[in-house]
Specification:
single chain, 379 residues, alpha/beta, Aspartate Aminotransferase, domain 1, 2 domains, 12 strands, binds pyridoxal-5'-phosphate, PyrdxlP-dep_Trfase, PyrdxlP-dep_Trfase_small
Amino acid sequence: MRNSKLNPATVAAQAAGAVDAQTGGVVPGISLATTYLRGEDNALLRPDNTYGRDQNDTVRQTEEVVRALEGAAASLLLPSGMAAVAAVFRALPSGARVVMQTGIYWGTLKWVRDYCVRRAIILDEVDAADPDALARACRDSADMVWIEVPSNPWLQCVDIAAAAGMAHKAGAVLVVDGTAATPVLTRALHLGADLSMHSATKALGGHSDVLGGVLSCRDPKLPMWAEIATDRHDAGAVIGPFEAWLLMRGMRTLPLRVERMCANAQRVAEWLDAHDGVAAVLYPGLPGHDGHAVAARQMTGGYGYLLSFLVTGDRARALEVLGRLRLFHRATSLGGVESLAEHRASIEPHSGIPETLIRLSVGIEDAGDLIADLDAALG
Ligand code: PLP
């Protein structure tokens, strides 16, 4: 199904045309073979299948779904979101210069800071949602600019097209971690990014039962892309076929889930915004949010499923509210069909996250039930 005219809901529902050609099943089987046959003439039965490390039809089919949803030239699956982050950084030469948005997913920052020290990579952390700050950081030449849109857990929204212009002027590739947007809401490559990255563990999989990461490129001739693909093949950071199959299954409902999650998140955000016990709500769908104008330009169909709010009071009050939730699960992560709530400062202490901040990942439950749960918790 390499028909670029099909809309995301169609591509997703039919898993980009994946069927089981052997049985006629409308759902593809899972290809588990780790090695492939050669004929009497020693030729491979299929020249593209020699050894299973990164040659697997289930993985390829899942990559094709992401590629089509992203409008990308090519996509590569990796075993987790962090493996995707690491794959990009491993493609940089020692001594490279990276401009990176600060205040993004702490796991990314933590690993990148450590890796850059070990590989003598110059890392400039910058408040990329401030266009002047990003422009200043891009005045000197750079190899890569990395942004996360919207950011986790601050929900900052960098203007991707503007960031691409600045990155390219500096001679850098722009990489966008779009985990909190999904390709349904934002196609970063179409806005000028060179690489798009998602933790597929989140909304792409959507059921909190599979780890994965994915990278997509606009131009497969980008030297970095070849390095990433070679490194995956040679160093072996591959996803298993069962995990890839689960992702493919999950993505069949991605547009539907994202639509419902966005509608729920918008209602929850508006309700929280009007509550006396809430000091602030961080959600790009609220007109008062700093990133609203940018998000309105570059997100289509909603403002995402992730939001944070600050309770009035202190850490104890935030933990009290969290402890009273009965429907939201108290758990880390995001993007699943079930709603999650988390006290972020407990997870990333000393990172400047306010002690009163509660992060919500809004699922597909009934919005009225979710609001009633928050109402009871806030008291
Ligand atoms: N990027 C973002 C924005 C995330 O929220 C996360 C995980 O929470 C990651 C990357 C890392 O993904 P994974 O947990 O699949 O390694």
